[in-house]
Every structure is written in C-alpha cells, then in structure tokens.
Amino acid sequence: MKNLLSLFAVLLLVCSNSTAQFKEDPVLNLQSEDLKFLNWGYYLGFNQYDFQFEYENDIGQDVLVDKSLGFNVGLIGEMRINEFLDVRFEPGLLYAQRILGFPGFTSEADAIREVRSTYIRFPLLLKASTKRFGNWKPYITGGVYTSLNLGAKEDSLDDNSSGEFRMKKNVYGYELGFGIDIYTEYFKFSPSIRGVFALSDELVPDDDPNSPWTGNISGIRTRGFFINFTFE
C-alpha cells in the first residue's frame, strides 16, 4: 500500500501542474468531448493485491501475505446516459503476485507459497461526475466485475503437499473508486484510485481435509487497490 501511495503522490504532482486551469477564464479544451454518445479509450496502471482469509477456528495463527506491485492494462468503452452519468465497460489484463507464509512449519519449503495471478477482468461500472470546472471534472465510480484467473491451477492434481497452492479460475466481486478528468489540448487524462473486493471464495482446498495448509481455512477472497491512468 505504501508503494501505491507513493505513486499517487506522483500523480498529484502531475495534476498540480494543471492548476492554472482553475483561473477565472480558462481556455476550455475538448469542449465537445463529453457530448458523444459513445467514447473509447485505454488505461494503464498499478495494483497491490491482498487476500482476506476466513478461518474455521480462531487459533491465533494467521496466514501472512507479502504483497508486491503488479500492473494493469485495458480498454474502455463508455456510453453516455446524461451530463453526469456514464456506463463504462473496462476489460483488461492484470498481473499480481502474493507470497503466503503459513504458520506452524519449520521448513521454508513448506511454509512459503508463491501465488502468481494473471486475471482477465470484465468490469461494468457506473461513473457519476460533477459539473465540469474549467478543464477539471471529479467523479466517483462503482460497479461489478467478473474475472478469469489464468494462473489459478484449479485443475491441478497436485496440492500443497506437493508445493502447489490452488485457486479457482472464476472470480466475481465489486469495485469502487474516485478520480479526476483532466481535459488537455489533445486528449482527456483521468487518474483514479480503485478498491477491488472479491465476493466469491477463491480457495481450492487440499485433498486432505486436515491439511496443515488449508484445513483451517474456510475461504479466501481477493481485495486490492488500483491506481489507473486513463487516456480518452
């Protein structure tokens, strides 16, 4: 999370260079941009994914998660409803990596599991914007998504006893965020922060119901933060 906050600080620095747009009579860029019924674009960004664990019994020994930065890339299709509301479809590719530390083991080979995930995501979002102020327009966004985890290993015959941590391929959840549309001379640039929360259980338990890795886990759900930079 600290790494993402540092990136957002850079984002704010970039935005601060545009404060001249708040002057009394700014030169308005792209005045007809938001009048289109359909709009297209793409986004690049960073993510930091975590896991929320649910346990069968509270034994005071939680699974530790070491998070790292991943990246996002995708396309945007936007349909205008009115001056303040838009429906957006943002299919994209996301890569994330998490390292799990299981308690109760003396061997690192048994205690550590590296989880690399490549998600193909399909978010359907509603974007609610304020009135445009010069060349700025804040907004909030939220909606639902479904995704396919290409690195899930759901069908693998190996489990943690063979060093394999398995997850389900199909995940669904919801997404919330906020951002600012910045109208430049040639395109609309939109930095945003998103929170992503899976609703479906992603754990494929080990074959042994008393497994020291998954025996006490009733479910795991992904949660994470995005910083996206959108160009339209």
CATH topology: Porin
Radius of gyration: 21 Å
| Residues in β-strands, percent | over 45%
Q: Which bin fits the share of residues in helices?
A: under 10%
Helix/strand structural class? mainly beta
The topology string of helices and strands comes to: HEEEEEHEEEEE
Average pLDDT reading: 89
- Strands, count: 10
The number of helical elements comes to 2
Shape descriptor: elongated
- The low-confidence parts are 18-22
Give the CATH level 1 class.
Mainly Beta
- Span between termini: 27 Å
InterPro entries: Beta-barrel_OMP_2
Protein name: Probable protein-translocating porin PorT (TC 1.B.44.1.1)
Pfam family, one: OMP_b-brl_2
Signal peptide: 1-20
Write up what this structure looks like.
The protein has helices spanning 2-16, 108-111, and strands at 38-55, 64-67, 69-80, 85-89, 92-101, 112-129, 136-149, 170-183, 188-198, 217-231. By secondary structure, the protein is mostly beta strands. It has one domain (2-17, 37-231): Porin. Strands 1, 2, 3, 4, 5, 6, 7, 8, 9 and 10 form a 10-stranded antiparallel sheet that branches. It is elongated, with a radius of gyration of 21 Å. The model is unreliable at 18-22 (pLDDT under 50).
